[in-house]
Amino acid sequence: MEEITLLKTLLESPKKIVITSHRNPDGDAVGSSLALAGWLRLKGHQCDILLPSEFPDFLSWMTGADEVFVHDLDAKSCIEKVENAEIIFCLDFNALERIDRLGEEVKKTSVTKVMIDHHLNPSDFAQINYCDTTASSTCELIFRLIDQEFGEREMINQVIGESILTGILTDTGSFKYATSSRLLRIVADLLDLGIDDSKLQDLIFNAQSVKHLRLLGHCLKNRMEVFPEYKTGIIYLSKKDYEEFEIQRGDTEGIVNFMLKVKDITMAVFVTEQPTIVKLSMRSKRSFSVEEICKKYFKGGGHKNASGGYSYQSLNGTINKIKEILPEFKEKLLSA
Ligand code: 5GP
Ligand code: MN
Hints:
Low-confidence stretches: none
CATH topology of the largest domain: inorganic pyrophosphatase (n-terminal core)
Bound molecules: guanosine-5'-monophosphate, manganese (II) ion
Order of helices and strands: HEHEEHEHEEHHHHHEEHEEHEEH
Strand order of the largest sheet: 3-2-1-4-5-6
Helix content: 40-55%
Distance between the termini: 42 Å
Structural class: alpha/beta
Radius of gyration: 20 Å
CATH class of the largest domain: Alpha Beta
CATH architecture of the largest domain: Alpha-Beta Complex
Number of strands: 12
C-alpha cells in the first residue's frame, strides 16, 4: 500500500500518538511538532510531543510549547509515552541517534513510525516516510501533508499556521536559503489564512538580549580566524567563554552565519566546547557541501549548505583537524 494511504488508514480511528524531534530543537523542530500535534488533535487523536533536550528561550512564546515533554528533564514520562504510543512521528531528523536515549526507546517499539524530514541521506527505520530533501523545512512538509495529501487546509488554524511559518522562517533565515516558488506559494496561502508574518518575524528575530549581542561582538573580534587561501572562516568558543558570558541554550544561534557575510568566504565553521563533546556547526555558499565534511570527519550531516557534527577531541584538537582537512577541499572551496 502506498505509504500515505497507509497513514490515512491508520489515522481513521483515534490513536495515542507520540511526536518527537531532534536534540537541541530549533524553530523547525518545535514548529513542525506543534503544528502536527495541533492538526492531529483536531482530528481526534491524543498527542504528546517528546524532545531529547530543551528548546531555546526565543521559542517559548509558541502556543503549546509549555506542554512539551523533555527527556533530559523527565525521562520517566517520556519512556512511558513511547511505550504506550500507537504511532510515533519522527520530525526534522532522519536517524534515531539524533534523539539520543529517546531513540533507543523508539527502536524497541514495534508500532508504526512515520518520518517527516528534509535532511540528506535518510536511514530506514520508519515504515512511512514523507521526506523531501528539496523542501525548505519540515514545516513546509507538514503544510503539504495537511493540504495536499489530506486536503484539509481548512483545519490550519491560527496556532497551526503560526507554528508552520515559524519553522519556515527559521530554517530559511527569513527566506534567504532553500526557498522555491513552491515554498512562497505555501507562505502566501498561510498569509491568506490570516497568519501575521511581521508579528512572527519580530518574536523570532528581535528577541536577543544585550548579553547576546556582546557575545557576538566577542566572537567576531576575538574568536574568529579567517583563512583567505581556503575561503574559510572559523569561530570558536571555549568552556571558559561559556562561563564568562554566561552562555545559555540558544545564545549562540545564528553566530555562524555572520562569517558568510564576508564577500569571499565559501565556508563558515563554528566550533564550541561543550561539557563532554566539541560541537561543530557549518555553513557554506553555492555548490560547496559542508554535509560531505560533517559526514566524513565529524560523525554528522544535515544539508549541503548547513550541517553539523561533533568530535571527542579537545577544542584545539578539533580546530587543528579542521585546518588539516582544508587542503583536501581547497579546489572545491575556491571554485564553488
Ligand atoms: P546547526 O548547525 O544549526 O546546529 O545544524 C545545521 C543542520 O545540521 C541542521 O539541519 C541539523 O539537523 C544538522 N545537524 C546539526 N548537528 C548534527 C549532528 O550532530 N548530526 C547530524 N546528522 N546532523 C546534525
Ligand atoms: Mn529543519
